[in-house]
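Today's session is about reading a structure prediction critically. Students often jump straight to the picture, but the first step is always the sequence itself: look for stretches that repeat, for charged clusters, for runs of hydrophobic residues. Only then move on to the predicted structure, which in these notes is written as discrete structure tokens rather than atom positions. Here is the chain we will use throughout the hour.
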Amino acid sequence: MEIDIYQLAGDDMFQSNRLDGTGWHWSWAPWQRDWMEATQNKFAYRCLPLTIANQTGWWVYNPIGFTAFWRGDNAAGGVHFLFDSRPDQWSGWVNNQFGHGIITWNTPFLLRTRPQGSRLLITGPANHFKDRVQPLTAIIESDWMVMSFTMNWKITAPNVTIRFDVGEPLFQLIPLASNLCSNLEESKVRYMKLDDDPEVADAYRRWSEDRTQFHRQKKEGDVRPDDWQKDYFQGRHPAVPNPISGHVTRIKPPQIEFNPPRK
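Below is the predicted structure for this chain, in token form.
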């Protein structure tokens, strides 16, 4: 897969070139989350599907701190903004152009992907939460698109104050190597009872019995209270002695070529 990231805004709009601490900034998505750090013994990180989702793709960060207030008016401009600085500059980037309590960021990037049929998933930062406002998720046809895109968050109730700090994660960019929608449309989907597939049924019951026994041993004090089985984390399958091929526990960010020559 090939991903081209085009910078649409001038360097003066990016945090590394500004003295006031504001500005656009982006990075590979980190695997840590504050709420996961706060769980007992950081047990939330034992859920590998969560940590893989956390670190898939890039984060783009909020460029300017502001407070937003929506009274429930569905017309465009119904959200009132109080920017921490330079409202004349940032109101063009962050506004309520779509109405309905939607906060819109006009993003400073154009992304193009190859091969043909590849897509770009734009979503809120995975497993990162914010009260009273929710990110909207979009799938973009990035194999041909030549325009920028917006990121949008929907205020969920009127007459509440919403705060976005400068530098907090705004959205996550996840390139998809194929057309997810087309793949789903062409998929062969089967529905059955577990016992209709004896091989899967046997593997599931072996796993379930092992899990039940493990929790029984934990309750009886035969294993440490903070111990865990690690079956999924280590890619273990009840019917296969070796780890599953292709299993990953960490994603390595791709190398980025800055200002590469045009081919």
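Discussion point for the tutorial: The two ends are 16 Å apart (CA to CA).
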